[in-house]
Amino acid sequence: MTSAEQPTPYGTGKAASPVPPKRVRISYLQQLKDSGGKFAMLTAYDQYTAAIFDEAGIETLLIGDSAANNVMGHETTLPITLDEMIVFAKSVSSGANRALIVCDLPFGSYEVSPAQAIASSVRLMKEAGVQAVKMEGGAHYADHVRSMTAAGIPVMAHIGFTPQSEHALGGYKVQGRGDAAQAVVDDAVALTEAGAFCVLMEMVPAEVAAAVDAAVPVPTIGIGAGSATTGQVLVWQDMAGLGAGKAPRFVKTYADLRTVLSTAAREFADEVRTGVFPGPEHSF
């Protein structure tokens, strides 16, 4: 092989995307960022969806505090507790063998101090088997991130619209418009310099997300943040069309699972009522 044919080393320019590993780790996501590659992330809250998404090649699974809305039926993410997150995270860890498993630190589990954030993260890693945690908040939490990474805890930062702060932010609103754009970039830089291995941006203008992606050396993930980020994440129930009502603008629905399940349930009920099920083949 001549020198001209040598592949470009990661970190020195754009290169071919790396070969997918048997186990996705944060180093692989960094290789994708360095090479101009992309990766996918979906939420998961149980062993079956975790296994399905893992087998489908989803690189990163997020046990989101969105379980409060999408599993437990709360109006916001605020009520879910750390103990409840651990139960969901254990289920996902038992179902996935390849994906990087990241878990949200829920509201009230990290804000008091870096020590509280470390203690909560240690529980998630020891008791639930996750490989990283995600924490909402801007540059104010740089000391938290610095202490957590020093303790060996990989931290994914979450900036832009942060659902745990929806009351302070005045509801579900796009963040970083106009004069507020630079603050989003500054948050990302501060958290990255503190040790965050990745920055997730929610509901920010596409051009702001692109500026963040250019300003930080680590991978970025978008949800309602345009296409310039390294990764994209969706809540799986939104992606698969399980919920009722209108989906957010940034969601693309890839299936109509609500109709599939509804049809199956009706067919089951009809067969029970008419005596078709169970048939001889279902009996001992």
UniProtKB/TrEMBL annotation:
<protein>
    <recommendedName>
        <fullName>3-methyl-2-oxobutanoate hydroxymethyltransferase</fullName>
        <ecNumber>2.1.2.11</ecNumber>
    </recommendedName>
</protein>
<comment type="subunit">
    <text>Homodecamer; pentamer of dimers.</text>
</comment>
<feature type="binding site">
    <location>
        <position position="136"/>
    </location>
    <ligand>
        <name>Mg(2+)</name>
    </ligand>
</feature>
<keyword id="KW-0963">Cytoplasm</keyword>
<feature type="binding site">
    <location>
        <position position="65"/>
    </location>
    <ligand>
        <name>Mg(2+)</name>
    </ligand>
</feature>
<comment type="function">
    <text>Catalyzes the reversible reaction in which hydroxymethyl group from 5,10-methylenetetrahydrofolate is transferred onto alpha-ketoisovalerate to form ketopantoate.</text>
</comment>
<keyword id="KW-0460">Magnesium</keyword>
<feature type="binding site">
    <location>
        <position position="104"/>
    </location>
    <ligand>
        <name>3-methyl-2-oxobutanoate</name>
    </ligand>
</feature>
<feature type="binding site">
    <location>
        <position position="134"/>
    </location>
    <ligand>
        <name>3-methyl-2-oxobutanoate</name>
    </ligand>
</feature>
<dbReference type="InterPro" id="IPR003700">
    <property type="entry name" value="Pantoate_hydroxy_MeTrfase"/>
</dbReference>
<dbReference type="Pfam" id="PF02548">
    <property type="entry name" value="Pantoate_transf"/>
</dbReference>
<feature type="binding site">
    <location>
        <position position="104"/>
    </location>
    <ligand>
        <name>Mg(2+)</name>
    </ligand>
</feature>
<keyword id="KW-0808">Transferase</keyword>
<comment type="similarity">
    <text>Belongs to the PanB family.</text>
</comment>
<dbReference type="InterPro" id="IPR040442">
    <property type="entry name" value="Pyrv_kinase-like_dom_sf"/>
</dbReference>
<keyword id="KW-0479">Metal-binding</keyword>
<dbReference type="GO" id="GO:0003864">
    <property type="term" value="F:3-methyl-2-oxobutanoate hydroxymethyltransferase activity"/>
</dbReference>
<comment type="pathway">
    <text>Cofactor biosynthesis; (R)-pantothenate biosynthesis; (R)-pantoate from 3-methyl-2-oxobutanoate: step 1/2.</text>
</comment>
<keyword id="KW-0566">Pantothenate biosynthesis</keyword>
<dbReference type="InterPro" id="IPR015813">
    <property type="entry name" value="Pyrv/PenolPyrv_kinase-like_dom"/>
</dbReference>
<feature type="active site" description="Proton acceptor">
    <location>
        <position position="202"/>
    </location>
</feature>
<feature type="binding site">
    <location>
        <begin position="65"/>
        <end position="66"/>
    </location>
    <ligand>
        <name>3-methyl-2-oxobutanoate</name>
    </ligand>
</feature>
